[in-house]
Here is the input.
Amino acid sequence: MDKKERIYKTLSQIVGDEKWVSNSPVDCWAYSYDMTYKRPQMPNYVVLPKTPEEIQSILRLANAEKMPVVPFTAGTNIGGLCVPEQGGILMDLKRMDEIIEINEEVRFAVIEPGVSQAQFAQELFKRGYRFGWPVGPPSASVLACAIHHGIGGMSGRYGLNSNHITGMEVVRPTGEILMCGSPAIRRDSWQSCMPLPRFDGLFTGTLGTTGVVTKLGVFIPPVPDYVHIGTFAAENLTDMEMFMRTFSKYEYADDLTAISWWLSQVPIPYPYVEKPKGAPEWTGYCTLYAFTEKELENKVDVFNKVIKDLGKKGNTIKATDVPEESKKGRTQLPSQIVGSTKNYCKMGGGGIAWPGTFTPSNRWVAVYNLWKEIYTKKAKIALSPSTRVTMYRGCHYGMLRLMTPFPRDRPEEEANAAWCIREAAKVLIDAGGIPYKPPTDFAREINKRADPGWIDLICDIKDMLDPNGIMNPGKWGVR
Amino acid sequence: MADNFKDLKWYSQFFRKCSKCGTCKSAYSYGPPPTNASICPQGDYFKLDSYYGSRAKSFLGQAILENRVDLTDPAVQEDMQKAVFSCTVCGGCQTQCQLDYKPWIIDYIEEMRHNLVNRGIGPTKAEKIYQDKVIKDHNPYGETHSSRFNWLKDVRDLKTDGNTVYFAGCTASYRRTEIAKSTASVLTKLGEDWGVMGENEYCCGSPLLRAGLREEPQKLAEHNVDYLNDHGFKTIVTACAGCYKVLAKEYEKWWGLKLKAKVLHTAEYLEEKMKKGELKLSNVPATVTYHDPCHMGRHMNHYEVDMDGKKQWKGSYIQIDKPGLYETPRNVLKAIPGIQFKEMYRNRDNSYCCGAGGGIKASYPDVALETAKTRIKEAEGLDSVQKMVTPCPFCVTNLGDASRALGSKVEVVDLIQLVDQALKK
Ligand SMILES: Cc1cc2nc3c(=O)[nH]c(=O)nc-3n(C[C@H](O)[C@H](O)[C@H](O)COP(=O)(O)OP(=O)(O)OC[C@H]3O[C@@H](n4cnc5c(N)ncnc54)[C@H](O)[C@@H]3O)c2cc1C
Ligand code: SF4
Ligand code: SF4
Here is the structure.
């Protein structure tokens, strides 16, 4: 039996049925590319395990064969993160789709990797709970998003989705299972990662390079009874940022977001068009949730007061009145319009990528101006600077993201978009921002500028956890 | 005669616009409350991304067009055939997609099949067998053509003229004769001057079209259209969702063959009668649910597309400007006194396929049966539902098989059978 056949047979034995394994180029092709400009790379095998035990066996086999393993849930990460750099085994985790527990008393849920945003939203809503739904595809994994510092509709109030993590079960690259957080001490206690050392950090933000997370505990807050969507506009990002910085100190908004004119269009204009004269360059919204009428009233009062006070100082920020329909879109998450990429890709055509970053708010303006120059002046084909800023809880930093659609079937235009995105990422990192879920080309740029001690530690940890370097190799650009 | 089929390259302007967002893998609606349900029978069965939704079909089309896989390798041919031909072509994925690819998804999947047939990578063995039968005997069941209207003998003498012609279709003629008999009975009870095509009724062509054939169904289409147009019928009535789609839409769409008579599904015919106050229905006590056949629902949606870019941009999908037949059959069903109607979770545009479409019942019987079982279980989940009603003999067959395989108490019946029961003589 040749190696290919042997590995195929062993994988089939592990998962109990040939149905859950393939080495067919037809199946492998479907896992070879994503929505970004990343060149296709085929895995050699696709396997769909159902249990952590099966994952253990697959990883042991991969170590013995020195074969890469790429964890995959829905492949919607907008960064080519599941495109196998070096082939190997693509581990599709969608069969592990159980919501294991929703604990309403302690307010946590335990989920498997294949649980989708839509599935989780449905089950939580039935019970009056919610989560930080990203504006991404409903089919995407809650777990993959949370362990990669996903940003959701509660990030202003409760922080990133990784801040909601209360515990983890992980299969290490060498096949051992471990628990992080409170379930490490008692298996059914998923209340918090603290006060233990944050070993969950070894598996968060690591792009599937340090292990396979097989269970995740997350905090689930209740759905409040009252909500108000505040909407506002400013002529420029300087004024908008000042408003967001000022209002965010109250920590009243679950979501505090502003978008440039180009992103507010459904869909994003492709290629670039001029903003109509008189239209504000920036519009924004905040979702104010409350458990009592009084609480809501207070929040709305403060929102209005901040706008008024800034107005008196010459800031162009204004409260706006927008149709109820478009307000709804701010709370109706996971979003159908955004998740289906209708607002991003419908005109551009199929491809999207971004510099999606965490950046201190006092650098937003400088970076945005550089981005505009790259996109509208330096690019061969001018592109819309469709930018979003979202303030996170904690200090004045947040998402600064430039969503960039392009046609998949026109290589020159795809290359144009890729060039713009890479250039935008470079100026961003230079300004102190950091791309999230970074594609390999961004990772290289990050590493070039990184503190050597930090790189050394990453390498040491990677070598310790994954001595054969099998886990999603190449993604962090360090090994 | 020239046809209006487009090739894979032409469709690539749309399928290459798929963003790989994966929204087509399940039916989700924000609500509130948010609802989520599986929608793709093929993906639900095989699970691999190469099988899931219209996203998979975009991957596969690109692989074929750009030679991304070696289609001269027999093993690859086999896998490609399975990935393309085990889809029920139900359109559940199409409902979810929001991009300019959406309007074309069904036609494109069938074009992919046609492309593979031309390369000798299709049809499946089972399809080849029934296709030969259609070509020889004008029905896919291998029955003699002369016995097509045997079922009518129990009902009345063969009559081939009249105001209205009942196009029975192959499944009702040979396998679900109770549906054909009920249709005949209803038409008679309503005092319709009706006839049949007799030995001139050929298979509508649906089983061949669905499997990517072009010339053979054209011959069937020309034959049927010529006969129907030459015989002065005013209305063509069919109780089969598959025949309905072909007669009402595809003969003209693909070959410009216009039927002079109005084409009505029996559900539409009955609703018209109802509106005129001519449908006097008596009590049928039953708790029922309704299953939307894809060919009558989603497949009959009409999509507005800005082909020349006057409204938005070239090729942009604007909206569904005319929905398929969702309310009509429900209106008829709900008009029967004594009927307690309960809607399944997945309904209308988000209905779950019965599992039999696209040649799957013959080629991938396990997929067909497992899919139908899921649907029966969904009905079982509704409190005290006794019957699943659907206006399609093919859906009745597959869902009925699943009900029996599960030992379910849910009985699968055709809408026309219930109406027949409710119609006073
Ligand atoms: C239109 C659109 C909008 C988006 N908006 C947002 C947004 O608002 N906020 C946001 O946070 N994201 C957003 N995203 C990004 C994306 O939806 C999320 O990152 C999503 O959660 C990824 O889930 P996935 O199932 O697609 O993961 P995949 O793409 O399959 O995987 C992502 C990464 O996780 C790794 N991985 C997967 N499972 C495991 C596991 N069990 N253990 C270890 N590693 C694993 C993979 O190897 C890969 O590196 C958006 C995406 C799109 C297309
Ligand atoms: S077919 Fe439509 S819904 Fe499916 S992945 Fe492509 S764009 Fe998204
Ligand atoms: S047509 Fe139906 S079976 Fe085929 S991919 Fe779409 S949803 Fe799945």
Chain B touches chain A through 47 residues (CB under 8 Å). The mean pLDDT of chain B is 97. The two ends of chain B are 47 Å apart (CA to CA).
